[in-house]
Amino acid sequence: MGKPPNLFAFNTADELAVSLRAFVIDAQNSALDRHGVFRVGVSGGSLPKVLAKALLGQVDGTNPLDFSKWEIFFADERAVPLDHDDSNYKAVKDELLDKIPTELGTPIVHPIDVKYLDDIQEMADQYEQTLVRSFAARDSVRTPMFDLLLLGCGPDGHTCSLFPGSPLLRDDSAWVLPISDSPKPPPKRITLSLPVAGHGIKIGFVATGASKKEILRQIFDTEEGHQLPCGLVNGLGQERVSWFVDYPAVEGVSFPARRGSL
Ligand SMILES: O=C(O)[C@H](O)[C@@H](O)[C@H](O)[C@H](O)COP(=O)(O)O
Q1: Are 9 and 130 contacting, i.e. CB atoms less than 8 angstroms apart?
Q2: Nearest CA to ligand 1 atom 4
Q3: This prediction's pTM
Q4: Residue bearing the CA closest to ligand 1, atom 13
Q5: Structurally, how many domains does the chain consist of?
Q6: Which atom of ligand 1 is nearest the CA belonging to 185?
Q7: Which EC number applies (predicted)?
Q8: Is 120 contained in some domain?
């Protein structure tokens, strides 16, 4: 048995952002030492905004971010045009990419190929090929290991587009899977498979607000919750997983939350 995930709780969004920034910079620096590139998978929801606040909203007198070494992938994506309001790419672009100061460098970004909006199996296969080109070429790995995955937690315990009870949770046949009946709209999406989502060198979840407290209590404190998608990622990633939450989100959670910074 490895160590359990880390749960870090903060009083304010600003404090959370400071720690998330430190977490990302640490992951970036380790990745650059290891292989000269920083491969990050991000999801949608509130994450792009929180990430932008963490990375761009603070000035600490130094310049530890080197976006020119970043490759940004999508942990899940909706099958919509890239300028559609439901697009996770658009959220990341609007919140973060468009605001990165030139002197911090320009990341390589891997959006979905919108040629395949009507064929999500092909879209998933093509996105997997994008991963193969980036990961296998460098590392000859069987399961791609993101340097950092930044994920959200839905009110039902879903993460990426892996929903509770979905057969996709048992599908380890591919790195990227299509989903055509997402319980949350839009229905057509692609998602990292569970083995890939749980395989990041570092995995960060961000969940804030009182609306998350019941699902976080289940995920951390109950056996059933360990079987929810977020709980399964916790189980696979163990101490490689760190949750960044505010106090309202963990009210009533017995699992020990560490206060404040990393
Ligand atoms: O699947 C989706 O449609 C959402 O993008 C979802 O995955 C989101 O990331 C979580 O529901 C957390 O959302 P918040 O971070 O906004 O709470």
Answers
A1: no
A2: 45
A3: 0.96
A4: 45
A5: 1
A6: 3
A7: 3.1.1.31
A8: yes
Q: What is the CATH number of the domain that holds 58?
A: 3.40.50.1360
Asked whether 176 and 69 are in contact (CB, 8 A), the reply is no
Count the alpha carbons within 13 Å of 218 in the hemisphere toward its beta carbon: 19
Ligand 1 atom closest to the Cα of residue 155 is: 11
Q: How many CB atoms lie within 10 A of CB 97?
A: 17
Ligand 1 centroid distance, CA of 152 (Å): 6
Q: Report if residue 32 sits inside a domain.
A: yes
**ipTM value of the model?**
0.94
Structure tokens at 17: 């952002």
Mutate which of 77, 87, 158 for ligand 1 pocket (most atoms within 8 A of beta carbon): 158
Q: Residue 5: is the preceding peptide bond cis (ω within 30°)?
A: no
Residue 123 domain boundaries? 6-253
* Inside any domain, residue 261: no
Closest to 25 (Cα-Cα) out of 14, 38, 13? 38
CA 72 – CA 88 distance, rounded (Å): 12
pLDDT digits (tens, 9 = 90+) for 58-106: 666 677 999 999 999 999 999 999 999 999 999 999 999 999 999 999 9
Ligand 1 binding site (Cβ under 6 Å of any ligand atom): 43-47, 152-154, 161, 184
